[in-house]
Design goal:
This protein is of the alpha/beta class. It is built from 17 helices and 15 strands. It has an 8-stranded mixed β-sheet with strand order 9-8-7-10-11-14-13-12, sandwiched between helices. Helix 3 links the parallel strand 1 and strand 2. Helix 1 crosses helix 3. The N and C termini lie far apart (66 Å).
Amino acid sequence: MNGRVIPYDIADLTLAEQGRKRIAWAAREMPVLRLLRERFERERPLEGLRIVACVHVTTETANLAYALRAAGATPVICASNPLSTQDDVAAALVADGFHVYARRGEDAETYYRHINWALDHEPHLIIDDGADVVTTVHRDRRDVLQTVIGSTEETTTGVIRLRALARDDLLAFPAIAVNDAMTKHLFDNRYGTGQSTIDAILRATNLLLAGKTVVVAGYGWCGRGIALRARGMGAHVIVTEVDPVRALEAVMDGYRVLPMREAARVGDLFVTATGNLHVIDREHFLVMKNGAIVCNAGHFNVEINLEALAEMAVERIVHRPFVEEYVLPDGRAIVVLAEGRLVNLAVAEGHPASVMDMSFANQALACVYLAQRGRQLPADVYPVPAEIDREIAQLKLESMGIAIDRLTPEQEAYLVSWQHGT
C-alpha cells in the first residue's frame, strides 16, 4: 500500500453513536449475514486481503463491512451514489476503524476523488455498485491492476458495463455478477426496489397513490416490483417497454402497456427503472399533464433528460426536500424527485435490511470464492456459483423457521434417468 493514503473523509464524526444504533437495528433483520460472520470469525477466509467496496453507505452495507472484517479482510469503503450516503453510518464505521470516503450530497468531483483515495489502498478485491471503480481502474488507475484479483458487481447497470468491457477484450480480471444471482435479483430487485421506491415517493410527496395513473418504465425485476407495489396501493399502472417478451409478460400480469409517447399524456407519476439513457425525454415533457411527477429508480441519473427539462423551464421551485418543480412556458409544471437520482436511496433508506441480507451474503461469499479461485480464472464475467445461491436460500429459509422437502434417493435417481417413461 502506497504512502499517500488519506485515512477517511466523512461529514461529521460526532454522529457515530447514532449510526451504531441504526446499524445494530438493521443487523436484527440480517440473520444470514450474521451466520456468515460467525463462520468467518472461525475460518478467516479473507485473511490479509484489502477490499475496496464502492457501495451505498447505509446500515445494511455497514453490516457487510463488519462481516468482511470478521473474515480477515481490510474493507475500504466509498460511496456509489452522491445522495445515498447516511452520514451517521459513515461516522460509525470510521469510529470503528474503517477507512470511509463518503459524504451525503458530494459533487461529482468529490465522488471520483473518493474512489481514487479508496484505490490508493491497492485493493485485492473490489465490490462495485455500478462499475465506477472497475471502469476507473481500467481507464485511469491501471497502477493498481497488479494487486487486483477480481471484482463483484451489485447492479444490473454495472453488469452491463462489465460485459461491455469483456466484449471489447479490455476486462483485466475476473468479475462475478452478483446482481444476477437468483437470491439477489428475484428478491432485492423485485421486493426491495418495489417497496423502497414507493416508500421514497410517499416520503417526498405525501401523495395518495390510490386512483393515480403510475407509469413504470421498464419491466425488469425492479420494474416488476414497482408495478406490483403501486397496484397494491390502488394505482392504475401502465408499463412501457422495448423488449416484446417483457411487454407481453406485463400484459399477462394485468398491466396496460403503452409506448412512452402515449403514456406521457395520461400519467400522474412516472418511475424509470431501465438502466438506459433519456427514457423520459423532451418529447414526453411536451405532452405531460400539469403537475406530473417524474422520478428514477435506475442506478444512474441519466434516465430522465433533466438537461432538456431545464432548458425548457422558465422557473424552478423547490417545494419540499428533493421535490423540485420545473415550470414550462405554457404554465404547466413538471415535478422531479431527488434530482433524478436513485429515489429510494436519496429520499428514503433504500431496501429493507431483510432483503439486503441475501444480496450481501452473495457479496461476501463471492469475495471468498474469488480469494480462493480468482487467480486461476481468466478475465471474464462469471455468474455466482449455483451452490452459493442455494446455500443462501437455505440459510434464509432456516432463519425464517421454514422447512422444505428433500428428494428421496428414489426421486433423485428418477430425475437423472432416461429409462422411465409412460
